[in-house]
Fold Cytochrome c oxidase assembly protein subunit 19.
Amino acid sequence: MSAGGAFGGNRGARPVPPEKGVFPLDHMHLCDLEKKDYINCLKFEGHKSEKCRHFSKKYLECRMEKNLMAKQDMSELGFRKVDELQAPSLEG
């Protein structure tokens, strides 16, 4: 006896909206170059996203510039200033 709905979904569960809200898809392909750069980096780096963060940042900046998402400070999206990233570590 199946407890889930069609396609394995739970019929009684309420959908949860995304944390940042709904944002439009890039139907006009305004940020395709940035998206492709990020995807190519992921493929080249074995899907290690931390090595491609600079491409991810450029993609998000493009989306904000083209009004495809709300403008926010990059620090709110998990990015630090460039000088902090390039500073040598003080650990051991």
Summary: The chain is about 35% helix and 0% strand.
